[in-house]
Write a structure and sequence with these properties.
Blueprint (H helix, E strand, L loop, with lengths): L15 E9 L2 E8 L8 E5 L13 H6 L3 E5 L23 H14 L7 E5 L1 H12 L7 E4 L23 H13 L5 E3 H5 L3 H7 L4 H12 L17 H4 L7 E3 L4 H6 L5 H5 L6 H14 L2 H12 L1 H6 L11 E6 L11 H9 L3 E7 L6 H4 L1 H12 L4
Parallel strand pairs: 3-4, 3-5, 5-6, 6-9, 9-10
Antiparallel strand pairs: 1-2, 2-4, 7-8
Length: 388
Amino acid sequence: MTTMVPYSQTVLPAGIRSRLVDNVNGLTVHILEAGYEAPGRPLLLLLHGFPELAYSWRKVMPRLAKAGYCVVAPDVRGYGRTSGTDVTFDDDPAPYSTLNKVRDAVALVSALGYREVAAAIGHDAGAGIAAWCALVRPDLFRSVAMMSAPFGGAPRLPFNTAGGGQGVAPAATRGSELDAELAKLSPPRKHYQSYYSTREANENMWHCPQGVLAFMRGYYHHKSADWKQNRPHPLAGLTAAELAKLPKYYVMDLGHGMAETVAAEMPSAAEIAACAWLPDRELAVYADEYGRTGFQGGLQSYRCGTSGIAATEGSLFSGRTIDVPSCFISGASDWGNYQTPGAIERMRDSACTQFRGIHLVEGAGHWVQQEQADRVGTLLLEFLDGRL
């Protein structure tokens, strides 16, 4: 196994450093840091999603550090230069569950010498980790900002079944039924989370005909505000007919992998040249890392979701709410806001008891902290200062 080393400073903005932290819940964790020079600053923990890296926070970290915070962004378990990328499909996915990633976060905070985190800030799958950090350890994570993936609350348990009440179908069963209904559509479709849980997904993306660099370009473009067909709106319910309204990066053609799906929407050379939020030199950092590791480390968490591991673990906290200040920030052109019908409303109305609002950023799709970094930085600082 290759020994990991920090990033070269040439790929990082000024004021950010890369280093490795050993003995973190069995991991060696690669982190990016800003505002580390002065001791005693309040800590912000930034958690990325799929297929991203700690590097996805590079544009907002200096702004947060300038405001007086120590800002730490790890490569989450299974990603980049943190342990766990050598996993295979035949390995147990359980270590990649959200709650074990919460354990990773708690252990990292302790290793860094902190007993409190001013805010857990998460994007995409990282929003789920951040939400669970705040839900299970409000004493440690004093606030939470979620981006691009609404947190609908802890899984519900069957209630009053002994008295004749109705049970709740397991998440894996509901997913299987929905997959079957999607496959009956014309043309037949499939849900991306089910696809990401299959053996072939990693190979399809890692060794795709267009190469990892072009795959990543197509994927990031397709889910951004640059793809003008991203005009999201709420869905009426969790049915195949409603989910079929989602773009094909969420509800895919049954016979296509993700590599083929995004290749069909590859941006032109002119569009790539005009992409100021992700120029080729920055995209190359992602492509180099994923070209080396593959995607399975990130895909394992999807398997935790579709197999029921996540719901089983999360049911321990059924009925518990997020009781620290919370907010939701996302791109106005991000379908992630609505891909789970009702989740954004549950987050606002019941899952969070000190909710500070939904803030949708114009000119951004799914990659909001990269597409509109200045606006996201402003919103985060207003939230942290109690002004949201």
